[in-house]
Amino acid sequence: MATSEYQVTGMTCGHCEMSIREEVSQIPGVDEIQVSAQTGKLVVSSANPLDDAAVLAAVDEAGYSAVRA
User: Fold this and answer.
1) Given this model, what pLDDT does residue 10 score?
2) What CDD domains does the record tag this protein with (predicted)?
3) Are 42 and 27 in contact, with CB atoms under 8 Å apart?
4) N or C: which end of the chain has fewer CB within 10 A?
């Protein structure tokens, strides 16, 4: 299993987490998503390595910005 961790800026609440989870879950191959507004961390797990650009684009689509941690 591959795990990628990102630092997200702009999240403040559970709704923020839900928005990001919703967008990232649409990426093919994503198995698990852990996102925390409190820590600003997004952890994405998948069977195969994911394209960072796809994850960052999904976070951007949700209205936030992220960088690979």
Assistant:
1) 95
2) HMA (cd00371)
3) no
4) N
| Vertex 18: Cα angle to 27 and 62 (nearest 5) | 60
Q: What is the DSSP string of 11-56?
A: --SHHHHHHHHHHHTTSTTEEEEEEETTTTEEEEEESSPPPHHHHH
- For 21-66, how does the pLDDT look when each residue is reduced to its tens digit (9 = 90+)? 999 999 999 999 999 999 999 999 999 999 999 999 999 999 999 9
Domains in the chain, number: 1
Taking the C-alpha atoms of residue 51 and residue 23, their distance in angstroms, rounded to an integer, is: 14
- Measuring CA to CA, which residue among 29, 21, 32, 34 is closest to residue 48? 29
- Flag whether 48 is in a domain: yes
